[in-house]
Specification:
alpha+beta, disordered C terminus, 546 residues, 15 strands
Length: 546
């Protein structure tokens, strides 16, 4: 009987698990049916404002709710319903929220199934963009175009074939003739045009002939939101197109874009503008020998070149954004802008979210002073960096989860340290593990500065530690002069301990550079890992506490 009792308990546990699983399935099915009814009612009520707002609310509840709502929206025929309602501004408003790639494919199929009605649907959307007197209708139409073009390549092709590139240009031309140009319309029209231009060489050249560059360059002196959209559109025009990049250089686009890199007042409001301007310039310079020659003749070319390399590193590293921690890639670019780089993705969590080596606190007078040394700094992710020749490098660290946290107003300040290890610290031929005890007398501290304030690049040699004194939006940037033959340790970290997020770190240069896979953590030592040397000064002469 004892043996029988012992065998009954696992059976009872299994029965309990099966019952719980069945109950969970029933609850999920009931929730799915309730959601289906809600989605079906909203689709039937389209294009009413209440139905549009209801669908948007269902999609934005959570990632899981979004996936379920979009699936059910497709199953109840929502995309086909939208295709027949493009005459309504409200349809344009809700369209980007409820069409994923599969939904967009269904939407296009519904339009293609009835050619005459489909052509009429496209004409309705064009009319909202070009002919409507209501500014809200123009904004919604541009938003719908951007959403379709961004979601699926086939949608982009269909939009181009139906003349939406020219329609967006007409919209921008109309805005430029108004006594007070509607900035919201300008912003959304530029955004939609940027999405539409991806890989469309023929459309790019056609719009240039129609004068789109004059309109876009005029927007570089407006407000940050419009500037950001215009710069994005200029960068998309230049991307991969020698003819477009040559034209941009010849019509005088380069000085205006370069000015955006150093505009302190503008950067204080919207630092991403400088990143987008650098990326646009990188697209132009890497596609056009004419543009690269013009840029190389500028007095600030050395600083400008590092901005371009940083932009290229961010672009290359963005391809790793959804990869697992430890994924790596090398990248190169050829004439006229020769560059090479290496990217790796990682994650700060647990012990690995150790924060900066030295933590500064902001005092009542607004000045920062050293608060404490962080003995756990060595627990951060770390990588060996090698350079083939003496060169200038640009290191960028990108927080890949920042956008997802934006709704909760959570932020993680990123930093990165580049350490030139003293000789004798590692006798291994291969740099597999750093066994380092950092002491005050061992290191000279150098400090990077914002490119719009100082253009001197710090030199990081043996027994040097460099850390950026600025970061832009969700990215940290460090520029430095590296020397061949020195073993460098690259440590991306957050400003404070406990910042949990994923990141991509990239190193870009005009010489061969390479990042290793993640290293093992440094050996612990009983004394504090980091101390600022007494009386030490940064390369620009300022004290650390300043």
């Amino acid at each position: 009987e004892g043996g029988g009792g012992g065998g009954a308990l696992p059976v009872l546990e299994q029965m309990l698990e099966e019952t719980q699983a069945e109950a969970a399935e029933e609850l999920a099915a009931e929730a799915d049916e309730a959601l289906r009814a809600e989605v079906s009612k909203a689709v039937a009520d389209l294009p009413s404002v209440g139905a549009c707002n209801g669908l948007r609310a269902l999609v934005e509840q959570s990632q899981q709710a979004r996936e379920s709502a979009l699936r059910l929206f497709r199953e109840v025929g929502g995309p086909a319903r939208l295709a027949g309602l493009l005459h309504s501004p409200e349809t344009s408003y809700v369209l980007p929220y409820v069409l994923d790639a599969e939904g967009t494919a269904d939407f296009l199929a519904a339009i293609a199934a009835e050619p005459e009605a489909g052509s009429g649907a496209w004409r309705h959307l064009t009319s909202l963009l070009v002919d409507a007197a209501d500014l809200r209708s123009k904004v919604y139409a541009a938003t719908a175009i951007a959403g379709l073009a961004r979601t699926l390549g086939e949608a982009r092709e269909a939009l181009c074939a139906n003349g939406f590139g020219q329609a967006l240009l007409q919209c921008l031309q109309w805005c430029s003739t108004q006594a007070v140009p509607p900035q919201e319309v300008q912003r959304h029209a530029c955004t939609a045009l940027a999405e539409l231009l991806e890989g469309q060489e023929e459309l790019k050249l056609a719009l240039i002939d129609l004068g789109v560059l004059r309109l876009l360059l005029a927007l570089l002196t407006t407000v940050p939101d419009v500037i950001r959209a215009s710069v994005t559109c200029i960068g998309r025009l230049a991307g991969g197109s020698e003819a477009c990049s040559d034209h941009l250089a010849r019509v005088g686009a380069l000085p205006g874009l370069c000015a955006l890199l150093w505009d302190r007042a503008l950067l204080g409001n919207d630092a991403m503008i400088a990143e987008l301007a650098a990326l646009a310039l990188a697209n132009i310079a890497s596609s056009s020998a004419v543009a690269f020659s013009m840029l190389s003749e500028r007095d600030d070319f050395d600083a400008l070149k590092l901005e371009l390399l940083g932009a290229l590193g961010l672009a290359a590293g963005s391809r790793l954004a959804k990869e697992e921690a430890g994924s790596m890639t090398d990248y190169t670019g050829g004439h006229p802008l020769d560059y090479t780089g290496s990217s790796v993705c990682g994650r700060w969590e647990g012990r690995g979210a150790a924060g900066a080596g030295i933590v500064f606190e902001k005092g009542a007078d607004g000045r920062y002073s050293k608060s404490y040394d962080n003995p756990n700094f060595c627990d951060n992710p770390q990588y060996a960096l090698t350079v083939a020749a003496d060169c200038e490098i640009c290191v960028t660290v990108w927080d890949t989860e920042e956008e997802a946290r934006r709704k909760t107003n959570q932020s993680v300040e990123l930093m990165v340290s580049l350490i030139g290890l003293p000789r004798g610290q590692d006798d291994e031929e291969e740099f597999t593990e750093a066994v380092v005890q950092l002491c005050p007398a061992d290191f000279t501290w150098v400090q990077d500065r914002p490119s719009y304030e100082f253009r001197e690049i710090p030199e990081v040699h043996e027994a040097c530690w460099a850390c950026p004194s600025y970061w832009r939006t969700r990215k940290a940037v460090l520029r430095a002069k590296a020397k061949a033959g020195i073993k460098y340790l690259l440590v991306p970290h957050t400003a404070r301990p406990g910042g949990v997020t994923s990141f991509v770190v990239s190193v870009t240069s005009t010489e061969d550079v390479h990042l290793s896979p993640p290293l093992t953590r440094w050996h612990k030592v009983p004394t504090p890992i980091v101390e600022w040397p007494l009386g030490a000064r940064a390369s620009d002469g300022t004290r650390a506490a300043d």
